[in-house]
Amino acid sequence: MNWRIPLADVEIGQEEIVAVEQVLRSRWLSMGETTLAFERAFAEFLGVKHAFAVANGTAALHLAHAAIGLTGGDEVIVPSLTFVATANSIAYTGASPVFAESIGKDDLNVSVMDISRRITPRTKAITVMHYAGFPCDMEPILELARLHHLSVIEDAAHAVGSVYNGRRAGLFGDAAGFSFFSNKNMTTGEGGMVVTQNDDLAERIRLMRSHGMTTLTWDRHKGHAHTYDVVMPGYNYRIDEVRSALGLVQLKRLEAGNRRRQELVNRYRDELTNTPGLSLPFRNSLQTSANYIFPILLDDAKRRPSFFQALKADGIQTSIHYPPIHLFSYYRERFGYAAGSLPITEDIGAREVTLPLYPAMCDNDVDSVVAAVRRALTR
Ligand SMILES: *Cc1c(COP(=O)(O)O)cnc(C)c1O
User: Which of the following is catalytic: 184, 252, 302, 312?
Assistant: First the structure.
């Protein structure tokens, strides 16, 4: 499809091209000093002690969940209204994801009240996801976690640059995972970052990222080491220099991009407020969102297929965030979920539509989408 207005678009310029070319000319392509520079820049941006660049956001979340020591028999409470990687990265460790409800139509983030109802003696952690970039209400979640001695992991894939009570998303959990997939607010094509303030978790993440080996190819190349020990069966979740070079440039573009996203969201909201047939979640959020996506909720789930068709006929790409995870075959069959298990989440999942949002969108594009939305709803 050649969309008139796509759902998302990357910001790539001459600087990215130059940065990648420099890496290629340097003849060192696997993880090395460009990756270290990317990690340092990202850590400084966030204000976090440790940041590890990895192959993708799912690997970042797997390392976060593995580092806190999850094993078979453990339970982790997690929203169902998120990308499946949030739950898959828990399942990799042998632990069981226990799905919790979203708050409701005004706030699609996970409900702390529902989390608290699902705590059992097996619960080891709470994993949150900052939907669309709107930070979860972390204070009550952290309080609940402290009370029950639970770890907290943040899936911050939507939230690079989001701020909750003056601190950036990714600083609240024991560890957090970011994604640099190609449609995210900053991209390396495929890539991710796992961050933590905790020195012990950082050491385990460092080992697990590269086979459980005590030295890196890079250390040996630099003459810092000749051999290595292996202290655990780790993974190969390394990023490479080409993608780290992209990430460094993309990080510099991030804040301007996020500001533009906020302007576009404000315009959408101004124009769509009081439109019959739909509602706008997160209208009451007092926090700073990275605005990764712009979600709306149709009043009537039955109208969604024809709504999609109408926008498609106008050349406008839309999407769904997300089909609830607990209704996917694997999660139904393995963990016993069924339709009706999470009624609030299922209702939102059936009514949500994601409209186009990316920094290069112009005001006129927003107006065109809004006009198409209005036409589709009155048809
Ligand atoms: C994009 C995304 C991920 C996974 O990131 P990848 O880099 O694609 O592996 C995880 N969780 C959420 C909520 C995401 O949006």
Answer: 184
- Regarding the beta carbon of 209 and ligand 1, being less than 6 Å apart is answered no
The reply to whether the predicted model has a pTM over 0.85 is yes
| CA–centroid distance for 165 within its chain | 19
Q: What pLDDT is attached to residue 317?
A: 98
Among 130, 155, 182, 293, name the best residue to mutate to test ligand 1's pocket (greatest count of ligand atoms within 8 A of Cβ). 155
Pocket test for ligand 1, best of 80, 83, 239 (most atoms within 8 A of CB): 83
Residue with tokens 């186009």: 356
Beta-strand relationship, 167-168 and 278-279: unpaired
pLDDT of residue 227: 86
Domains, the chain, ordered by start: 14-250 (3.40.640.10), 253-378 (3.90.1150.10)
E strand map for 180-324: 192-196, 278-279, 294-298
Phi-psi region of 293 (alpha: psi -120 to 50; beta: other; left: phi over 0): beta
Residue 222 designated active-site: no
CA 298/CA 316 separation, integer angstroms: 17
10-residue block means of pLDDT along the chain (379 residues)?
A: 94 96 96 97 98 98 98 98 98 98 98 98 98 98 98 98 98 98 98 98 97 83 84 96 98 98 98 96 95 98 97 98 98 97 98 98 98 94
CB distance 240 to ligand 1 below 6 Å: no
Question: Is 328 near ligand 1, meaning CB less than 6 Å away?
Answer: no
The Å distance, Cα 192 to ligand 1 centre, comes to: 9
